[in-house]
């Protein structure tokens, strides 16, 4: 049987061949008590919007690029206050020590006295300001900046000791659906623009290991479960995220668009994304960075604006595999607040286990239909040359025809729980219906692409008993998709492309790791993706590292060097 190439754009499987479903999502909103601010840095985007109307991809036909509500002037003021005295000459002098360097190399430069955590943080802030305040280069990727980032970095310099975690002192960017007390958590929606929260569990863990939360990045609003057919990387708060490999030419992927673009553009040492079904894999692939969607429950989902508590997970997004392992380690410890974390094992030394020769002797399942893709074929030959045994497979066709019902039911139940437990005291919003009604009062600003998916959440009426049956059925189907060939051929992992099998992996709750494998003729990035069984993140990191070291396919976007 021929495999279905399941592309997950944002959160929901979009079928490349007829089968499953096709879906997209985004949103816009804000708290009733708060007045919408006017951007203090704006430009005439009418010609750009007019040009995008001719794009062959309907999702790239933008209605808006720059946010109508984000006060960018206050962001630039925040940065300027923290980089006072830091000039272009110093930025250029430090560039070789930081740009495209992995975390361990940066730590080595700090240990050698060539760099400090203060200067590292200021360098990233300067770079963000340099590009994001330039209308010809801005990726519309930054929603907020931690006003205390440099002060925290100075503190790291004074308290630095031997033996600290590699994430110590490293500036990290968060997708803006992840709670942090340093900045509001908006999910890209106006209704949450002043949503002050405590730290999510993974943010506590990062901070406990010494990481610095540098800022919050743009995303497909409500993690791309809001509107249908809308652009990836759009939110009412952040505007339209753009791809550094082709601004307004290539999609950013979603929903962790800002996490992907900021990593590609070197705006921080690492970033955190979230995934329900493809939202780490998609933007990592589109922006030629490394992304890991962990086993569901390995990392706590507490303090993250939800779509589905059954499928949601945070995950690391980085420029290389070593950094990905380091950030995963830093995110991994702490209370097991997610009910899926029961009996989950945890690792804290992923980065110590990497081995460039690990591929030799592995049995890898290659999806036969994907061999029509030349980049995939080249990547498979690279794996074979490193000693892997390649087995061609044709997985069974599987349909998740009630996937929308599945997500509707989870969000209908999970969103009120998040709002009750985590939303700031001024926020009176409690249900998706509240959001829909709020947006209807000004759809041009709050929901220019509509809110069809949210309307579906409000209308969903599946019973708890039927939902439990559906969850059990889809869990079995997802696992069967991978287990059947893996058990039959004794495979160590299955090799996919981008987010093609993200929907299957989501339902199976299996981990996925995506790594740059090259660029199409038009310059658009493409990734190879490795998928393994539950809690085999360590194996995936080793495979991905060995492939990365053997091929070194990632190239910087030329306009951001």
Distance between the termini: 46 Å
Helical content, roughly?
25-40%
Largest beta sheet, briefly?
Answer: 11 strands, mixed
Structural class of the helix and strand makeup?
A: alpha/beta
pLDDT average, as an integer? 91
Number of helices: 19
Rg? 22 Å
Shape descriptor? globular
Number of strands: 15
How much beta, percentage-wise?
Answer: 5-15%
Task: Give the strand order, joined by hyphens, for the main sheet.
Answer: 3-5-4-8-10-9-14-15-13-11-12
Unreliable stretches (pLDDT < 50, length at least 5) are: 1-40, 334-338, 341-347
Question: Can you tell me about this structure?
Answer:
- The protein is of the alpha/beta class and 561 residues long.
- The chain has helices at 46-52, 72-82, 88-98, 103-111, 117-132, 149-159, 201-208, 221-224, 257-264, 281-286, 321-332, 374-385, 403-422, 432-439, 443-446, 452-459, 464-489, 502-508, 537-551, and strands at 6-9, 12-15, 142-145, 171-175, 212-217, 234-235, 239-240, 270-275, 290-293, 313-318, 363-367, 389-393, 493-497, 512-519, 525-531.
- Strands 3-5-4-8-10-9-14-15-13-11-12 form an eleven-stranded mixed sheet, sandwiched between helices. It has a two-stranded antiparallel sheet with strand order 1-2.
- β6 and β7 form a beta hairpin.
- α3 packs across α5.
- The longest helix is centred in the last third of the chain and has 26 residues, at 464-489.
- The chain is globular, with a radius of gyration of 22 Å.
- The termini are far apart.
- The relative contact order is 0.15.
